[in-house]
Amino acid sequence: MKIGMIGSGNVGQVLTQLFVQAGNEVVIAHRGSVDALEDLARVLGAEAGTVEQAEAQEIVVLAVPFLAIKALPEPLAQDPIIIDATNYFPDRDAWIAEIERHKKTTSQIVAEHFQPSKVVKAFNTIGMTVLARLAQPEQPVDRIAVPYAGDDEQAKKVVASLIWTIGFEPFDLGGLATSFSAQADGPLFLVNETAPVLRQHLNPE
């Protein structure tokens, strides 16, 4: 796959490394200049580019603070799959009533900004300090599960395949409206476990 990574912090770097190791091509971008990313991109095996170049790929990963989403341009006409790897933290991103009151999920708000793009929530529940270590691409069973959610079934299949190829078990949460459990205040946040354990967290006795 051709993947655009928007964000060059810990999230962007770790995901880029895993995607490249799985055989994907990644263009990594940030708010600064392309030249400032050249060395990092070379180390990660990626290509440095502008935000617009990242958004021109088949898949676009949002690895930026939640509040920074509003400053990003809308994607180009090819309507890419957008992976929302962001997390909303009110002390950092400002208090947003719709999210705090669970009127909308964070990914629904992201989807509203990027319409008509196909948004899939994924890669936000596992800490980046351990994500690479937990990846088991050579292990077909008992993998750590990565929750994902989306309203476009074909886009979800693509993201589920990407989750699997980098070494995790895809864990389907349904549509964006039912992705509360994967948010920073949800029961699956920072739970690094297999799918059966995640189900227990969703349905405690």
Automatic annotation (TrEMBL):
InterPro entries: NAD(P)-bd_dom_sf (IPR036291), P5C_Rdtase_cat_N (IPR028939), STEAP_metalloreductase (IPR051267). GO terms for molecular function: oxidoreductase activity. SUPFAM superfamilies: NAD(P)-binding Rossmann-fold domains. Keywords: Oxidoreductase. Gene3D superfamilies: NAD(P)-binding Rossmann-like Domain. The keyword NADP does not apply. Residues 2-88 form the Pyrroline-5-carboxylate reductase catalytic N-terminal domain. Pfam families: F420_oxidored. PANTHER family: DUDULIN-RELATED, REDUCTASE. This is NADP oxidoreductase coenzyme F420-dependent.
